[in-house]
Amino acid sequence: MIPYVLAIVLLAVGVYAIACKRNLIKVILGVMIADYAVNLFLILMGYRTGVGGAPIRTPAMDTPEKFAAASVDPLPQALILTSIVIGLGMTALMAALAIRLHEKYGTFDVAEMKKLQG
Amino acid sequence: MDHTLPLLVAIPLGVGFLMPLLEKLKEPEWLMDLLATLAGAVLLALSLSLIGVKDIAYWMGGWDATKGIVGIELRCDGLTRLMLVTIGGVALAAILFSLRYMRRYTSKGFYFCLFFLMVAGMNGTVLAGDLFNLYVFLEVAAISSYALVAFGCESEELEASFKYLVLGGVASTFVLFGIGILYNLTGTLNMAAVRQQVAALADPQAPNLALYVAAGFFVMGLGLKAAMVPFHAWLPDAHPSAPAPISAMLSGVLIKALGVYALARLFFTVLGPTAEFATVLMALGGLSMLGGVLLAVGQWDFKRLLAYHSISQMGYVVLALGIGAAVIAHGGPKAVAGLAIFGGLFHLFNHAAFKSLLFLCSGATEYATGTRQLKELGGLAHKMPITSGCCRVASLSIAGVPPFNGFWSKLIIIVAAVQAGYLWLAALATLVAFLTLVSFVKVQRYVIAGELPPQHAAVREVPASMCVAMVALAVVCLAAGLLAPYLMAAHGAPFLDQAVAAIAPGWNAAASLALGGPLP
């Protein structure tokens, strides 16, 4: 139970950074932390106490049932690989936008970027 | 095996990645234009060809999870067909409009690349038969839309895009968290299988808390994507900052495919409609409806005004879905639930037509005059007759003036609200319809009627390809409005009826009865 709660706490840390930090770079870090909280949560879900072997199929495991009994759930691992790649794309785009914004305004401070009104 | 479903994702992906290549090879511009238009037309034709076909379940690579262990499913039911046709239609109009409009920007190849990636993402989202694919396609569409909002690279655009990106990123994180919880509960990602497991878990004595946590994450995540009040802060910045055809795509289909479609899919077919979810949907819908329109009334920026109205009009759709869910959850009359959902989905389709048309009109006036401030415009009725005519049609549609399409869908939603016993929601919907009318009278007054400002004396009508795009959408608005009563009375709207059947099976056939139609 505790690992799940900690994953949610990590998510909350990320959301706090996004909501309360004024520096663009810190906001980006906040999004990354929230992203990794979810990845952590997914990988924890696939862990099975007691059996936790790597999900590699050996000749001895000739049926799916034997494989499932001896290893952790491989599906969340596949999912977070995809999720990490998506997170990378998003971080790269955020960093690119932050650089362009810095060129325009000469600062990373969100409070000084207010060409858009409410 | 019919391969139409994967083609709907593969064609835009292929065309999308071909575009930057053509750009690099210094191919002439007409080649890119031709390719984009052809791809748009093919996608629309493929989507239309699915109408009337039975529901399809397509297993990628022939790996059938109902027979084996793993498999990725693409699923096409009534709701998917409705969304595919909507996406295809608006995308084709936006492509036609872009041909000339996007010449003002730097690189058409990269623009079309992102455009088609967004279309591929949206088609994939509505086709996805399992939860994780839904998330992946949602992200493909969302990330391309972030980049498209920033396409002009001006300060405002970058700022709007960054805001949109951060909030969109948080939304995706929440959605993935919810999906993770559902996977943990059920051990599967396939939507149909998750539905069975969730139904088995449902126990009125001891409600499963994890299910509510997952539902909460979905409401926050998808509410952000759909820009429901109070999660709407990014939309009025992001939608007006994008180039006009992209604003049309974002407001016309993106918030529907990513937000409302995913909400409807998850709440109706995966989690199952319960009284609590229905209350949440109605609250979100009612708040957005009122909040959006109140913020819109005071706007003087043409596109920003339209963006606020998107929030308000999507509120109608979510409200109608909420009423439908509430009636189903309380075991009320089937006709009312069917009617509410029918009205909501009809409004979704109508909103796609008239809101993208309005954004294209705002783009056309901006293209011709160089401004989108209502106070600097005026008297364009004679200078730009086609744009003005289309703008009139769209304004009358969104304001809900008979016989245009917006009137019928709003009428159905209000009738359904009354029949379901939510009189105050019906009153609220009527009030919002009135405020929308007020707001669009202002648009008419300041853009089309009035005095022509001296600086716009040399304004001319926009090029033919842009006019074609606008006229096509205006025809859809008019046709849907004029045919609506006939179709409803004859129970002949199989297109929408099947869409209702997809999220509320067995509740659809009764919809036309409530309007006095014959038995099916």
Strand coverage percent of chain B = under 5%
Percent strand of chain A: under 5%
Helix content of chain A: 55-70%
What gyration radius of chain A follows from the Cα positions, in whole Å?
A: 20 Å
| Rg of chain B, nearest Å | 22 Å
Task: Provide a compact summary of the structure.
Helices cover 68% and strands 0% of the residues of chain A. Chain B has a domain of 248 residues.
Question: Secondary structure elements and their pairing?
Answer:
The complex is a heterodimer of chains A (118) and B (520).
Chain A: H1 2-20, H2 24-45, H3 64-70, H4 74-105
Chain B: H1 4-24, H2 29-49, E1 56-59, E2 73-76, H3 78-101, H4 108-127, H5 131-149, H6 155-186, H7 191-201, H8 209-226, H9 235-241, H10 244-270, H11 275-297, H12 302-329, H13 334-369, H14 380-383, H15 385-399, H16 405-419, H17 423-448, H18 464-489, H19 494-503, H20 511-514
Antiparallel strand pairs in B: 1-2
Polypeptide structure, described:
The complex is a heterodimer of chains A (118) and B (520). Chain A is mostly helical and 118 residues long. Chain A has a single domain (2-50, 69-112), classed as Helix Hairpins. Chain A is 68% helix and 0% strand. Chain A is built from 4 helices and no strands. Chain A has helices at 2-20, 24-45, 64-70, 74-105. The longest helix of chain A has 32 residues, at 74-105. Chain A is elongated and about 65 Å long. The mean pLDDT of chain A is 86. Chain B has 520 residues and is an all-alpha fold. A two-stranded antiparallel sheet of chain B has the order 1-2. Chain B has a domain at 273-520. Chain B contains 20 helices and 2 strands. Residues 516-520 of chain B have low confidence and may be disordered. Chain A binds chain B through residues 11, 14-15, 18, 24, 27, 31, 34-35, 37-38, 41-42, 45, 64, 75-76, 79, 82-83, 86, 89-90, 93-94, 97-98, 100-101, 104-105, 113, 115-116, 118, and chain B through 69, 132, 136, 139, 143, 146-147, 150, 153, 155-156, 158-163, 165-166, 169-170, 172-173, 176-177, 180, 183-184, 189, 236-237, 241.
